[in-house]
Amino acid sequence: MNLLPLVLLVLGCTLPPTPAAPVGPDPEIARLVEAHLQFLASDDLGGRETGTVQSLATGQYVAAAMREAGLEPAAGDGGFFQSYPLEANRLDAASARLTVMGASGPQEFKFGENWALRGYNSGGFDLTADCVFAGHGLVSEEAGLDEYAGLDVTNKFVVVLEGAPKGGEGFVQKSDDGKTPRRDPIRAASSGRAKRAAARSHGALGYVTIFDETAERARGSFKDLVAEAEHPALTIPPSAEDVQPAWPSLSMDSKAGRALLAAGGMDLDAERTARASFPTDPATQKPGAPAPGRALPGASLHLVAGVKSEKAHAYNILGRIQGSDPTVANETVILSAHNDHIGTLADGRVNNGADDNASGTTTLLVAAWELARQPAPRRSIVFLSVSGEEKGLWGSEWWCDHPTIPLTDVVCDINIDMVGRNDPDAVGATPSPAHEDYNSLVARAVELGPQSGLRVTWTAPAASEDLVDNYYTRSDHYNFAAKGIPVVFFFSGVHEDYHRTTDDVEKIDRAKITRMVDLVGRLATDTANAAGRPHKIAKG
Known about the structure:
Elements: H1 4-10, H2 27-40, H3 53-69, E1 72-73, E2 81-91, E3 97-101, E4 107-109, E5 115-118, E6 125-133, E7 139-140, E8 145-146, E9 157-161, H4 185-189, H5 192-201, E10 206-210, H6 216-227, E11 233-235, E12 249-252, H7 254-263, H8 268-274, E13 280-281, E14 286-287, E15 294-305, E16 307-321, E17 332-338, H9 354-371, E18 380-386, H10 389-392, H11 394-401, E19 410-416, E20 426-430, H12 440-448, E21 455-457, H13 477-481, E22 487-491, H14 510-529
Parallel strand pairs: 6-9, 9-10, 10-12, 17-18, 17-19, 19-22, 20-21
Antiparallel strand pairs: 1-16, 2-11, 2-16, 3-4, 3-15, 5-12, 6-15, 7-8, 13-14, 16-18, 20-22
Helix pairs in contact: 2-9, 2-14, 3-9, 9-14, 12-14
């Protein structure tokens, strides 16, 4: 590792010199864009995984950049860093055991080969529970689906198939113009997070996904889950009054899944075939509900997993431009972007996360530098660089629950995540006019976009039907929205390098980043100088 840049940062020196940047409207902005991208997406930072020393180095770099830009520290204690506690739990994979219990006797399966595990805490597991099969485990009020209907899963393992049936696009409603798609309810319901939440809300003791390793994507996902055991699983330790038992989330390959369903009198291959596509409703010729799930009589799982734990910390970094109008200077516009990524693979390959989210962090830092050189706006602007987004929006959740300024003074959050790829002249945004949280901040962003050379669209990338509203719960703005604060989330969409070691800096569109710097700077300044605060706009 090249430690010179880190040493310079710790000593409070200026940012290191960088290679010549492309000529643009402002050479200094182009230089800063290049400098931040090159450093944040370098192998030296090891994928910026939260809770690691590289994450701390990332935070030191961000704080140094804020200090050099001229921002005031805004972490509430006279510094730039807000610390929050973590618990690092490492699975004892060598002794972990999973046994399928049935009429034909116990069958034990090997960790890492047939199954993987998430959701453990310092207590580990030694539990046995009956199992219930819930199809794909989909619950969507919007689509009229509930695969838990008629099932009692209380204190049992819910067993589901990975993914969702084909034909789910038939549930997507078109807008009044017949072109712009609305939220895809099946896509939302079939995410791992949504499925686990549905199982837990129905009282399940734990959750089991059966992967189909004949599908390349599913095979890769299962391998990624197995590889997670090489690293400690991080959690935010709950307060004493909020302590709850750990909730296991198991992943099985077909061999283990086939044995589990057979123990309950079901055939895995037959279920996969029968549930490959949504059935067609004869009355409407639209997709209908799949066949209901059912109990697996006589089938149970015995899970044993030891866990070793240690304490750790993670950090948010905050800098401020103080407002100039005494009557509203306490009111604050927040610009946010997560600085973390998913770390290094077991084989040493680094997930550099150039787009996710060195692009957003670079936009945040360069916007801070640019705005700090302009006359101070009426309201204050806080630049919030959070960690833990990839772990479950931890940093922004911690800040919203432990704010360094009163939440009543926060007028909005402008969040930036993955804005360096896809359409060079457009950026997606949410909430759209079809979303219940659509607001005047988003409407103003659409108006300002052309001044920065960007179209603000509802899809990502602009030419697709991938509505950005589908990502509304998946980045840090969501924790602000949950507190009733107006938000806009800028997002240019996923691509073939998303969460892969190929998300590298040479693929980033520097010109687009420069335009994003201009757009978020314009929007933040406009909002900070406006007569009133952003407000919700009724749908339709």
